[in-house]
Amino acid sequence: MRLSPVVASVFEPPVAEVKEWVAGRTFSSDRPLVDVSQAVPGYPAAEELRSHLAAVVQLPSTGTYAPALGLSSTRAATAAHLTGAYGGRVDVEQVMITAGCNQAYCLAIGALCEPGDDVVLPIPYYFNHQMWLDANGVRAVHVVCEPSGGMQPSIAAIERAIGPRTRAIVLVTPNNPCGVVYPPSLIARVYELARAADIALVLDETYKDFRATTAPAHDLFTRADWPSTLVQLLSFSKVFSLAGYRCGAIVSSPALLHEVVKLADCETIGAPRIAQEAATFGLEHLGPWAEARRVEMVERVDAFHHVMESSHTGFRVVAAAAYFAWVRHPFGGVAARDVARRLADDHDLLAIPGECFGPLQDPYLRLAFGNVATSDMPMVASRLAAAAEAI
Ligand SMILES: Cc1ncc(COP(=O)(O)O)c(C=O)c1O
Prior knowledge:
Elements (H helix, E strand, L loop, with lengths): L4 H4 L5 H9 L11 E2 L11 H11 L14 H15 L8 E4 L2 H12 L5 E6 L3 H9 L3 E6 L10 H7 L4 E7 L11 H14 L2 E5 L25 E6 L12 E4 L2 H14 L5 H13 L1 H24 L5 E6 L2 E5 L7 H12 L1 E2 L1 E2 L10 E5 L8 H13 L2
Parallel strand pairs: 1-11, 3-4, 3-5, 5-6, 6-7
Antiparallel strand pairs: 2-8, 7-8, 9-10, 10-13, 12-13
The chain binds pyridoxal-5'-phosphate.
């Protein structure tokens, strides 16, 4: 058979590649692998959640298809959560539950773009966002975020990137890979640009529950016109530690959701029912549990900042917040992939090379903190320092 050359040209999934570097190796308890590669919680879901799901599994209805837009209870709990956390108004009809935030993104792009259209994508990007555009013949128009700009996209650059074929601007905040939390004022200005151009603002807030504040992340839901511009994407993977169940959401106009459902009907039909039951339980009962995880993540990031400031690792922290650090390695002219490989092979630290997050990102590495405790941060720094000394 012949395979699609378009899909063949899509780059390889980075996490799988990096995990392969340590596959088959064993690590002793006195020298464990420091795995800061994949952005997943290293802790299990809450005990109450797991007990609840054990009972849900027994119900015959759990094995049936869920409605295409999602269970009404999950949609209602999501709408209530958003209204409580952001203010403004989100109705149940504006919420669709998906099999994770990645599916939410793919469906949204599918409903918004034709092959040959453009999407404005800040770099460093979340690699799956680029891969999906490439696989669908949609052109990513990159806006480079600079360390001098706090790794936030410039409004002027976004404005310049919008052209006649642009259908959406994508923002990820808190950002993957940098952790940077965009201020509500920046999100509002990008929203205004999108509204003026009659295109979508696709806002991926997978990590919103790991910010250093519980203040609203943006004020867009308080605007009466938000459904005609905003496509808000959510994930329940990280906040309730249920990445394997696959549950996320698209929050937008019923008109967009109407189109999205056509695509979803051909893929998952409906998001897994058990995953939706898990998310509903989390939204309704696990607020305090999630808040404790948020505080832990803030402590991890603080501890990382502290240890990197007080030790000489040679690596420079460009940004670190909400789940991630973006660091510049000290090996000028060496590809980040080679640096990451050396860290894995010789120093038992697994990180993702910057070039997986877009062009020009070779001097950087991404570290994700889902899997390392606050008390592990000195070990992270000492492994980096050892790598720098070994040169
Ligand atoms: C920015 C971003 N969006 C989406 C996802 C995927 O989330 P989900 O597990 O809900 O599909 C991730 C996971 O790493 C992510 O970093």
